[in-house]
């Protein structure tokens, strides 16, 4: 297995519910559930004042709690944990701007949008963009492509509806 | 119907799931939804495809199986519109991974989308490719990605750069094509493209020495300049993180410079100034700044030596180490671990602080600090460090104790200056955390105690005292019981007093009390109790006055539900009662265990244990010659790695395993050997040497040599079943002893059946000899006919005699019924049995066989076994 900066991203609620998972190195479905189960056990029970790093199966999980959500990223033993913390914060800030003071419910009902945002920040487990503004702009542009398509589709279906009246 | 109104129904589903109060309710909702989605898919309903996939992704996140939705992703990706593709690619990345065959089907769609006129669609395809592409896809699509590295829009270029990282990791051969386009990205102004380009170059250097050489020559100076510009750049709100413009860019530049500087003095020289600037000028009051400093320290440590810079770096770590923020302390410990190879002296200066971190309340920091302390230990500081760690052992968290104990034991073993100190420290550890000490550690301790003859008295007294306070620590109890069994007399007589000792008064009865407590203690396990019984037997000889009392304790276990204990109890009782004359010889002190042999044995680790224990029974510590070596362990171990046996195989094994318990295995069981599944037979042959499986035949032979080493018995001690072999054999030795003398082996009378092959003494023990006569049928060289002749060398008649044999896979064995199952005494007659062995590798491999004989005399079943691998060579040619 080769070196990947971020092996996976997990968002877990304080109750242990999974809100987002993204795997950049291959894990089978079984391994994935095991990882999630083990890690939520370790991370959710850690006290508030402790450091944000957990060593786990020869790897390191960097996590940070924002309100009711734990953002976790798994990285290699040798990587810069402090930077991974910055990446987590970067992601959170972009989500916050996008949803307008983001809360857990936003991420539940618009989980796919959270994934779209993440895909503009990380690819192949590596950081893609350090400018929050650029990410916001790219997401907005793609959202508007979807909106346009929607409008077109509804106007077409209106025309069809009219015509078949 | 509006195909994009999926949000409402998706919302409804999420609400319904969230409203569930129990897991069963949730499963029911999900099951209903999945059924609806399947129906909709089967109808090939295009309008709902989008919404169905979104729902499936949510269901997938909850951990339910969603593989049936994979093809829907492909269909959506193949649609024309951006919204469908967007959700399709998302589903692809979420529901599939690179190992699924389905993925290959998407290659074509990806190729089209990589060439799409809409840059966002190109972006979607690059993102998916970068996240999940397989080696095949990487090969197929590399040319497209290479072209996109020069695409006009930076959004596509940066995505292509990261996608390339995935490609070259999957197929390193492709990296050559990417060197030039990647290097071109280093001149970009757009931060996104620049950071991804730098990252790509870093990864290229890792897979391709040419790339490293090229970038080092042509781009080191440029990168140094880029870093300088970044460090000196004015405030830019777009990239600012706590006062630093784009720390991500800083960090990536430092990483690439590290790769370029490593092992190259010129390149290292070129970056010295800027590294010094980063190390001194970066603000360290926020996380972002510390992240840069941390990266900078690592780069300074990795590139070619520059004394001044390294002092700077170690000082930064020193500052980190005294930081109040746990994160910073954690990374400092982490980095000091790397720094230790560069400048051990500088790290030693922080030893006191690091030792404090071992006692931190944060498990992550404890663990890091302990690792670091472990590498900091050397001959000069081992004593104070060990003292600190052992003192802490008492108050540390339960979860941390195991790890801490292991490290302390390892330190003691590695650096102990003298045996006295070693034993003292180990006893302290056993006292405080005996339940966390691994078996091999206390085994090693016993070996050391045994070899330190001048400390026997001291040790047994120290253990006696420790036992009084910490009788709940399992391994302490074991070591104490062992030592009391061996050196109990020294405890009572205060033999070998050291100056530091206070004399204690211990009576023989007190000593027996200790063992009695150990054996009574309910929490203690089988091994400890078994060891305690042995110790009692030994004490009964050392303290004749307590003999009766000891017998009473031993007898209490004759009704034990654990067979092992019951057997020991009965046998030891009989030794004490009936065989006073040989008892003292049986329970002599163990010969001194040789440290060197022990450590090599330990390195060989467990696989050797099985053969070791059979060796042990050949050469018992108490010096009793042993007529029959029955390495029961070997066969019993079978039960662990049995392949699911067929019914007949099961019978066969049951016979093999059950022989000790059910005295008369049926003849039919043997007849089934052939059918019994050759895997099982192979296992039989390779047991004991799973590691060196290349020579499955060696274990039995070598055991007779290894058996010379008394340490073997120590290994045997740890496994109850081997104890049984040892104990049974010693007990069995008793009635046999006087019988052995005077019976020289009776001369062989092999029947001459006209074969050209010499007869072979296939097996010989003090009680039994087996001779093989060989013949072959003309025209069938693979098959060897063997006539086995069994001769009883003892004056007892053997009844229920059964011969069993096992062969490896390449052989086929057929056993005819034996001529009788009663073997007359003293060679006055024999049993013959015909065997037919067919060698499927005739001409390549020679015959080999494992044999097992069981018989009864005095109503006792005896087992013997052996391996036959000295078949005449010409049988196989």
From TrEMBL, chain A:
Membrane topology qualifier: Peripheral membrane protein
GO biological process: cytosolic transport; intracellular protein transport
GO MF entries: clathrin adaptor activity
Protein's cellular compartments: Cytoplasmic vesicle, Clathrin-coated vesicle membrane; Golgi apparatus
Main localization category: membrane
Residues of the AP complex mu/sigma subunit domain: 5-144
Gene Ontology terms: cellular component: AP-1 adaptor complex; cytosol
Entry keyword set: Cytoplasmic vesicle, Golgi apparatus, Membrane, Protein transport, Transport
Quaternary structure note: Adaptor protein complex 1 (AP-1) is a heterotetramer composed of two large adaptins (gamma-type subunit and beta-type subunit), a medium adaptin (mu-type subunit) and a small adaptin (sigma-type subunit).
Function: Subunit of clathrin-associated adaptor protein complex 1 that plays a role in protein sorting at the trans-Golgi network and early endosomes (TGN/EE). The AP complexes mediate the recruitment of clathrin to membranes and the recognition of sorting signals within the cytosolic tails of transmembrane cargo molecules.
Family: Belongs to the adaptor complexes small subunit family.
Protein name: AP complex subunit sigma
From TrEMBL, chain B:
Record family assignment: Belongs to the adaptor complexes large subunit family.
Role, per record: Subunit of clathrin-associated adaptor protein complex 1 that plays a role in protein sorting at the trans-Golgi network and early endosomes (TGN/EE). The AP complexes mediate both the recruitment of clathrin to membranes and the recognition of sorting signals within the cytosolic tails of transmembrane cargo molecules.
Organism phylogeny: Eukaryota, Viridiplantae, Streptophyta, Embryophyta, Tracheophyta
PANTHER family per the UniProt record, alphabetical: ADAPTIN, ALPHA/GAMMA/EPSILON
Membrane-topology descriptor: Peripheral membrane protein
GAE domain segment(s): 755-872
Keyword Transferase in annotation: no
Keyword Protein transport: yes
Recorded superkingdom: Eukaryota
Key words, A-Z: Cytoplasmic vesicle, Golgi apparatus, Membrane, Protein transport, Transport
GO biological process: intracellular protein transport; vesicle-mediated transport
A UniProt-annotated Pfam family: Alpha_adaptinC2
Localization annotation: Cytoplasmic vesicle, Clathrin-coated vesicle membrane; Golgi apparatus
Protein name: AP-1 complex subunit gamma
């Amino acid at each position: 297995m080769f070196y990947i900066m971020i092996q996976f991203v997990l968002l877990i609620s304080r109750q242990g519910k999974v809100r987002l998972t993204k795997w950049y190195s291959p894990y089978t479905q079984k391994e994935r559930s095991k990882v999630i189960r083990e890690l939520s056990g370790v991370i959710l029970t850690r006290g508030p004042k402790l450091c944000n790093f957990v060593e786990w199966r020869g790897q390191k999980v960097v996590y940070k709690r924002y309100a009711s959500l734990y953002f976790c990223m798994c990285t290699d033993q040798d990587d810069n944990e402090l930077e991974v913390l910055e990446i987590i914060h970067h992601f959170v800030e972009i989500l916050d701007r996008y949803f307008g003071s983001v809360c857990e419910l936003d991420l539940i009902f618009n989980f796919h949008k959270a994934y779209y945002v993440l895909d503009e920040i990380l690819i192949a487990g590596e950081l893609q963009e350090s400018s929050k503004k650029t990410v916001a702009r790219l997401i907005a542009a793609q959202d508007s492509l979807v909106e346009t398509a929607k409008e077109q589709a509804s106007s077409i279906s209106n025309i069809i509806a009219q015509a078949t009246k | 119907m509006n195909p994009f109104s999926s949000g409402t129904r998706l919302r409804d589903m999420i609400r319904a799931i969230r409203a569930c109060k129990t897991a069963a309710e949730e499963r029911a909702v999900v099951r209903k939804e999945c059924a609806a989605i399947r129906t909709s898919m089967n109808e090939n309903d295009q309008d709902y495809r989008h919404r169905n996939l979104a729902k499936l992704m949510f269901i997938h996140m909850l951990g339910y199986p969603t593989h049936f939705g994979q093809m829907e992703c492909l269909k959506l990706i193949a649609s024309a519109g951006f919204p469908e593709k967007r959700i399709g690619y998302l589903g692809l990345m979420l529901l599939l991974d690179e190992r699924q065959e389905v993925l290959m089907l998407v290659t074509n769609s990806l190729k089209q989308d990589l060439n799409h006129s809409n840059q966002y669609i190109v972006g979607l395809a690059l993102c998916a490719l970068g996240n999940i592409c397989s080696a095949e896809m990487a090969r197929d699509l590399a040319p497209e990605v290479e072209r996109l590295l020069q695409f006009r829009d930076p959004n596509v270029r940066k995505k292509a750069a990261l996608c390339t990282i995935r490609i070259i990791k999957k197929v390193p051969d492709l990296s050559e094509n990417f060197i030039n386009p990647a290097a071109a990205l280093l001149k970009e102004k757009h931060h996104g493209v620049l950071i991804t380009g730098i990252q790509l170059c870093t990864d290229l250097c890792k897979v391709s020495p040419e790339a490293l050489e090229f970038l080092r020559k042509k781009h080191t100076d440029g990168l140094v300049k880029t870093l300088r510009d970044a460090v000196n750049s004015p405030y830019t709100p777009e990239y600012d993180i706590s006062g630093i413009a784009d720390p991500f860019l800083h960090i990536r530049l430092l990483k690439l410079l590290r790769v370029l500087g490593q092992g190259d003095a010129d390149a290292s020289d070129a970056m010295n100034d800027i590294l010094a600037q980063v190390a001194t000028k970066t603000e360290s009051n926020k996380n972002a700044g510390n992240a840069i400093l941390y990266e900078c320290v690592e780069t300074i440590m990795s590139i070619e030596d520059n004394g001044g810079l390294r002092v700077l770096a170690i000082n930064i770590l020193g500052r980190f180490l005294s930081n109040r923020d746990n994160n910073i302390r954690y990374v400092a410990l982490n980095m000091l671990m790397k720094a230790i190879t560069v400048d051990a002296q500088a790290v030693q200066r922080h030893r006191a602080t690091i030792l404090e971190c071992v006692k931190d309340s944060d498990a992550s920091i404890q663990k890091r600090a302990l690792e670091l302390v472990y590498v900091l230990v050397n001959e000069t500081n081992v004593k104070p460090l060990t003292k600190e760690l052992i003192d802490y052992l008492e108050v540390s968290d339960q979860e941390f104790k195991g790890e801490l104990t292991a490290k302390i034991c390892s330190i003691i073993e590695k650096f102990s200056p003298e045996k006295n100190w070693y034993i003292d420290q180990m006893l302290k550890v056993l006292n405080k955390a005996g339940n966390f000490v691994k078996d091999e550690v206390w085994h090693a301790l016993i070996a050391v105690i045994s070899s330190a003859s001048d400390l026997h008295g001291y040790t047994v007294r120290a253990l006696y005292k420790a036992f009084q306070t910490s009788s709940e620590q399992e391994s302490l109890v074991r070591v104490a019981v062992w030592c009391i069994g061996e050196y109990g007399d020294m405890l009572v007589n205060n033999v070998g007093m050291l100056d530091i000792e206070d004399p204690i008064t211990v009576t023989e009865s007190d000593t027996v009390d200790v063992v009695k407590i150990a054996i009574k203690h309910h929490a203690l396990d089988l091994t400890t109790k078994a060891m305690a019984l042995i110790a009692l037997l030994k004490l009964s000889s050392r303290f004749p006055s307590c003999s009766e009392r000891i017998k009473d304790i031993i007898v209490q276990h004759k009704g034990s539900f654990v067979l092992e204990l019951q057997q020991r109890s009965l046998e030891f009782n009989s030794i004490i009662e009936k065989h006073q004359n040989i008892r003292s010889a049986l329970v002599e002190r163990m010969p001194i265990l040789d440290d060197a042999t022990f450590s090599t044995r330990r390195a060989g680790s467990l696989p050797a244990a099985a053969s070791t224990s059979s060796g042990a029974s050949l050469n018992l510590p108490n010096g009793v010659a042993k007529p029959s070596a029955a390495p029961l362990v070997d066969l019993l171990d079978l039960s662990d790695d049995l392949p699911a046996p067929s019914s007949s195989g099961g019978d066969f094994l049951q016979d093999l395993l059950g022989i000790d318990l059910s005295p008369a295995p049926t003849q039919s069981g043997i007849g089934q050997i052939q059918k019994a599944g050759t895997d099982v037979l192979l296992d039989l042959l390779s047991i004991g040497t799973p590691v060196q499986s290349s020579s499955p035949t060696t274990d039995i032979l070598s055991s007779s040599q290894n058996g010379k080493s008394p340490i073997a018995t120590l290994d045997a001690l740890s496994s109850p079943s081997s104890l049984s072999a040892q104990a049974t054999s010693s007990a069995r030795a008793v009635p046999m002893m006087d019988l052995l003398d005077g019976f020289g082996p009776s001369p062989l009378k092999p029947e001459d059946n006209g074969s050209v092959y010499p007869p072979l003494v296939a097996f010989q023990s003090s009680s039994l000899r087996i001779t093989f006569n060989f013949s072959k049928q003309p025209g069938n060289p693979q098959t060897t006919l063997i006539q086995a002749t069994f001769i009883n060398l003892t004056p007892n008649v053997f009844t229920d005699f059964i011969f069993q044999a096992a062969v490896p896979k390449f052989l086929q064995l057929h056993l005819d019924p034996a001529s009788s199952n009663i073997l007359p005494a003293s060679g006055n007659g024999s049993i013959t049995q015909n065997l037919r062995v067919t060698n499927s590798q005739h001409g390549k491999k020679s015959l080999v066989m494992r044999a097992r004989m069981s018989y009864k005399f005095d109503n006792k079943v005896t087992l013997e076994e052996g391996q036959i691998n000295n078949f005449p060579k010409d049988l196989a040619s």
